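dumping the sequnces here before i forget
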Amino acid sequence: MWFYEKKLQYPAKVGRANLRMAKYLITQYGGPDGELAASLRYLTQRYTMPTGQAKAILTDIGTEELAHLEIIATLVYKLMDRSTVGEIEAAGLGAYYADHDKALYYVNGESVPWTAAYIQSKGDPVADLHEDMAAEEKARATYEWLINLSDDPDLNDTLKFLRQREIVHFQRFGETLQLVQEHLDSKRVY
Amino acid sequence: MMYEMNSGLQLARAYIPSQVFTQRFGAMEGLSKGTIFPELYMPYRPRRY
Amino acid sequence: MNREQVAALKELMAQEFTALEFHLYLDTHPTDQRALMEYNEACRQLMVLKQRYQQCFGPLTFCESSGYPWQWIEEPWPWQISY
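..and the predicted 3d for all of it:
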C-alpha cells in the first residue's frame, strides 16, 4: 500500500509561464518515455521478479517515479498558470484547451493519450530489466532534448535533477540485472 | 560456456559494474545535483546545433 | 507560504533525498555496512526534521496528529508553492 506525503521530492519552479514548453513537457507526463509509463511499468513488473532484491528495487524506483510524475505535473501547471485563451490558442494548445482547459491529462506532446501499449511486463526478469534500463536511457535523452528546447534556467534546473535520477536508476537496474543473472545461474546447476 | 578470451565474461549478456560507495555529497548539495554519489554525478553538457 | 517555511521544506527534501539514495543503494548492496550506517543516521535526522516541521506547519502524511480544525486540507498543496 501507499501513503501520500504532502511535499514534492524537489523544489520545482519555473522562471515564467511558457505555453510552448508546457506543450513539450507534457510528454513526460503521459508520453511513451514519461514518468507515468515508468512508474506503472516497474510497479507491475515487480510481482514476477525472482528475488527479494529485485522486488525491492522495482517497488522503490516505481514509487520514486510517482514523485517525478508529480514534479512534471507541477511544472506544466506552473508553465500554464494565468495564461489566457488567446495565448493558449496561439501556442497551438487550442485543441488541448477544448478537451481539458488547463487541467493535467495523460498525453504526449501531440495530445496522443497514454496507453499501456507503451510498456511491457514479460514475466522474464532479464527481459524486463533490459526494458527498464532502456526506459531510463530514453527518459534521460528526452530530458536532454527538453533542456535543449528551453531557455528558462529555473525550469532547466528541475529537468537536470530528473535527468540525473535516470542515470542513478539505470545503475540500480544494471546492478539488479547482474544479481538476477547470478541468481538464475546458481539455479541452473545440472 | 564461458568466453575465456574475455576474462570470464559470457557472450550475449550485459554487464554493469557494481558501484562501490566511498564518499558522498552533503544533503543539500546532493539534492541540487540529483544524486549524493559523486561517482554517479554525470551532468549534461548541452549540444549546440 | 513564508520564506522560513520554504527553507524548512527544502531542508526536509534534502534529508529525505539522502535517505532515498542510500535506500536504493542498499537494495543492490545489502551487506555494505557503511552505507547501512549512513542510511540509519539519515533516517534518524529526517525524523527529527519532520517532527519539527509538522509541529510548525501541520501534517505531511497519513496519521500525523492534527490541530483543530483538521489541518490536512490547508493550502498550499505542493504544486502551489513558489520555491
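Chain B has one helix and no strands.
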